Amino acid sequence: PFIGYDPDVDFAQKTTSYAVFLQDEWSFADRWKLTGGLRYWHDTRKGAYFGQAPAIPAFGQPVVTIIFNQDEIFPGGSTVTPGDAKTPFDDVAARLQLDYKADNALWYLSFNRGSKSGGYTFSTGTPFDPNQVAFLEGISFDPEVLNAYEAGVKANLGNNATLNVSVFYYDYEDYQAFAQLGPIQTVINQDAEATGLEIELN
Questions:
Q1: Residue whose C-alpha is closest to residue 83's, from 123, 126, 47
Q2: pLDDT in the model for residue 124
Q3: Closest CA to 66 of 120, 133, 138, 4
């Protein structure tokens, strides 16, 4: 243990999931193809956490206890309730892509919407006093949504040579980012963007 900091932590998380999806392709005007798809998913997450760290008199730290489950939340003073230990999440993912097949190349334009459920951050550490309420407030995190836009070409250059070029833009809503806050590992939500260019010559 580090200067008497030796927390005892026990946690569990259970996820029940189901999903349905469909996808189809439509070819038209000889060289054109449109692909579309939808996917609906639903997750129910249940979580339970117990963490306790002994007092550290040298630093004026009392015993720290954290309880998060469907029967009890401890300590009080946060907006977290026992009902937060069981949370349903659902969303719809989508795909749309337009292809044009030239003689020696495939040009494409696509949009993809992906998502994943929220959940619980159960750290192997416990907070130092007086950060217990902030710790409880940070256990739950929200779903993440990605809207991805891409355009590109896959070309046959002859003599077994190929060239792939793509440009993309990713727009994240509530990106699930890992963060280290003192002794606590957690997940936080924040918006994010990414743009890029990829070139591959074989």
A1: 47
A2: 84
A3: 133
Cβ atoms 148, 78 nearer than 8 A: no
Tokens of 99: 């292809």
Instruction: Quickly state the pLDDT bin for 2 (edges 50, 70, 90).
Output: low
Residue type, 70: Q
Please, what's the largest Cα pairwise distance for the chain?
79
User: Is residue 94 very low, low, confident or very high in pLDDT (cuts 50, 70, 90)?
Assistant: very high
Which tokens sit at 124?
């192997």
Residue 29 φ/ψ, nearest 5 degrees: 50, 40
Asked if 69 and 48 count as a contact pair (C-beta separation under 8 A), the reply is yes
The 3-class SS string of the chain reads CECCECCEEEEEEEEEEEEEEEEEEEEECCCEEEEEEEEEEEEEEEEEEEEEECCEHHHCECCEEEEECCCCEECCCCCCCHHHHEEEEEEEEEEEEEEEECCCEEEEEEEEEEEECCEECCCCCCCCCCCHHHHHHCCEECCEEEEEEEEEEEEEEECCEEEEEEEEEEEEEEEEEEEEECCEEEEEEEEEEEEEEEEEEC
Retrieve residue 107's tokens.
Answer: 């040009």
* Residue 197: other Cβ atoms inside 10 A: 9
pTM (two decimals)? 0.86
